[in-house]
Each structure stands twice: as structure tokens, then as C-alpha cells.
Design brief:
Elements (H helix, E strand, L loop, with lengths): L1 H13 L4 E5 L5 H7 L8 E6 L3 H6 L4 H7 L4 H15 L3 E7 L15 E8 L4 E8 L5 H24 L2
Parallel strand pairs: 1-2, 1-3
Antiparallel strand pairs: 3-4, 4-5
């Protein structure tokens, strides 16, 4: 994963692009991984950890989306990715929501151990959405699996849209 993270920061820098994240179940793991790379301060604008519905809403997620689809949905992840991009004027926004190794008594809907991810490309006004069902026995390993997938997807998106 370290090599891919380094490639991500290098590619963002080369393309003069920025990124911001709104993370829920990963608790800042993506932004932490990015900031472990030298030069990340040139491409990372902001990150929000929005564990609660209230703070997702305060960061721009439409309450009606949460009410209609649940906080654990691709629709909520899309709201997260686009709103964090808009809030920070970043080229890329990443929204992550889901359940990792627990039942949420405040949000009873949604499949356990399923994580919804949305990457928003502001320049193309395009969403890249995917989900993953994690199966590791602990949260740390599940977070690592999610972060690895996001970094791989970001690299693929950037290479496909902007070349090498």
C-alpha cells in the first residue's frame, strides 16, 4: 500500500490536483495514510471524520438522503464526496460510510460489514461509486482493506482520465 500511496501523492502533485475526504467508518484512516507520504501537504486540503449523522448533515449531506436511503448507502457516500469537494474546492472528494464489525443501534438499516465509497471528480462532475464487504475479524484490518481499495481506484481513475 505504501508504494500506491506514494504514487497517488506524486500523481496528484504532477496533475496539480487536490483531494479532501469525509470519512465515517474508517475514522480518518484514509487521510492518515495520505499524510504519511512526504509531500501530501501539497495535495491534501481537508478531511472530516463524520461519525454521527448530525455532523454529516452539518458538512452538507442532505438529511432527506439519509432518511430515505439510510446513512449506510451509496447515496449518502455520494453526498459526502461531493460536499467535501465543494466545501474545500478540491478536485477530488472521497466519501466513505458503512459498518465495520458492529451493529449501530442509532442506524438499524444497512448491511453489516458493508462499506460504501464514492469518489467525486469535480472537474468532470462525475462520481465513481463502489462498495466492499469486509470480512476480517478486526476493524483495523478491515479499514486497511478499504483504504487499499480506495487508493487503487483513485489511481485507476486518474490514469484513465488524465494519463500518465
Amino acid at each position: 500500500m505504501e508504494n500506491n500511496l506514494k504514487l497517488l501523492v506524486e500523481l496528484l502533485t504532477k496533475l496539480n490536483k487536490t483531494i479532501s475526504t469525509m470519512e465515517s467508518c474508517t475514522g480518518g484512516s484514509l487521510v492518515n495514510a495520505i499524510t504519511n507520504v512526504e509531500g501530501s501537504s501539497e495535495v491534501l486540503k481537508f478531511s472530516a471524520i463524520t461519525y454521527s449523522n448530525d455532523f454529516k448533515i452539518k458538512m452538507g449531506v442532505n438529511k432527506n438522503i439519509i432518511d430515505k436511503y439510510s446513512v449506510y448507502s451509496i447515496e449518502t457516500a455520494m453526498e459526502m464526496s461531493k460536499n467535501i469537494s465543494k466545501f474545500t474546492n478540491s478536485n477530488y472528494g472521497v466519501g466513505i460510510t458503512g459498518k465495520l464489525n458492529r451493529v449501530d443501534k442509532n442506524n438499524l438499516y444497512g448491511e453489516d460489514n458493508k462499506v460504501f465509497i464514492s469518489i467525486y471528480d469535480k472537474d468532470l462532475d462525475k462520481f465513481y461509486n463502489f462498495d466492499i464487504v469486509v470480512k476480517k475479524s478486526n476493524r483495523k484490518e478491515n479499514k486497511e482493506e478499504v483504504i487499499n481499495l480506495i487508493v487503487e481506484k483513485l489511481l485507476k481513475i486518474m490514469y484513465n482520465n488524465y494519463g500518465d
